[in-house]
Input
Amino acid sequence: MARLKSVWVYHVDAGSCNGCDIEVLDVLTPYYDLERLGIKVVPNPRHADVLFITGPLTRQTRIAIRKAYEAMPPKPRIVVAVGTCASSGGIFYNSYALYNTSPQRGRDRLRSGGPEMIVPIDMYIPGCPPSPEEILYGVAQLLGIKEKKMKGEYWVALPPEEKPKAENEVEFRIPDRPIPLRYWLTLREELRRVVGYYDRDAVLDDFIALVGKAFEDENPREKLHDLVTGYFLKEKDSRIKVAMRFLENEFWRLYDEYTSLGESMRRKYPVTAGV
Amino acid sequence: MAEAVSYTEKLKKWDRFEAEKFSKKAPVTTPYPFIDIEKPPEYRGIPHINPEKCIGCGACVNACPPDALIMEWDKEHGIKRLTYNAARCIRCARCIEVCPTGAMEPTTRFEIATDNKEDLVEVVEHKLAYCEECGEYLDFTERQIEYVKAILPKEIFEMYALDERIGLTQEAKMRKTVEKLRETEGIPVSAFMLVGEVKDKKGGEK
Output
């Protein structure tokens, strides 16, 4: 195998957006330095042991990829798909410009698409684009330095009030929170517009803890205001400050709305009884 | 007030590997493939489905731009499968944004290169709810019903008598409504307008 010797790589673009190409270039810079692993990018597929393919395989590049693959020496002939597009067709998988002959047009379980339509692929490096570490990991795995860490998972989500019997069965659990679920859902959705998805859950958990503490007091409205102010003074991130004030106002608005809900419903629809 | 810890203090700090590994000065080139490293906590790795919280509503399937998440239906066996494939995923985190239960969890996993695409597939299998009146499976899962029960206030449950009706198909619900209306308000609806009987009539004609 070529693994013991230094591996020569030929990099070919199958219609990629250049994101993955730039990351492959990045791997060759002094910080990541792929060449210390004995890897060299060569300008000719006839010298290459490994073919790096980026891109979702457009119809225009199909013949070029095929030719490059056939020009490689027959012995190792390893193909590495760099990027999501090369692994499965990526976000372009059902585009008119792509060459995709999979029977379900790329919607099957393995999401077939990309260069695997015409050449066998030995290493998939998904990522859009894969960061230099991801490419390094893929190459290291090819050389036998690192081991494979991913494993397919199959979970059976049990209906509520059923206990798991097999190993992959998981029972249903709604996390316990001091406020009702509908408050949590509305606040969470509103908070997405204020701080975004990344900080959202942590900020909301902090706020819920404060609410739980405030409702132990006699006057929850003032107590919550005090608590939020205390949080406000300690916090350095102004985004989080704004979010906490926003949450406080939003929470009391919801609270008033939901506590008067039954009354207003009865006024609006006097005859009910399951219609 | 005093025990409140600010959010910034609680944020997970990212220890770059150079700092602990080399006391004086880190080398120019990363020693990465020969050591283990961690990505920063904001790094968007592949998302992970938490099967404990997932209710199978399919919000993530609607939001996913490259169809890395697909819902498969098997109405005969009453099963709905949520399939995630990291080979198609572009890490846009839209699924994390829209998930109503927080079952889609962001991770900083980056070591996902593999030689077999089967390793990248993650499947969560859900059981569909069953309507005993019609003898067929509904479009939604039992977990979804449980979640709706937890969300809706009691007044709305009473108003629409949802306890009995939530596990029925659309047809059975319509039939029940018509029957109830005839009973309570005495609307003179002809018998052929009842949904169940229309269905029987059609069957007879065919």
Q: What stands out?
A: Residues 196-206 of chain B have pLDDT under 50 and may be disordered. Strands of chain B lie at 48-49, 69-74, 79-85, 104-105, 121-131, 136-141. Chain B touches chain A through 86 residues (CB under 8 Å). The longest helix of chain B spans residues 170-185.
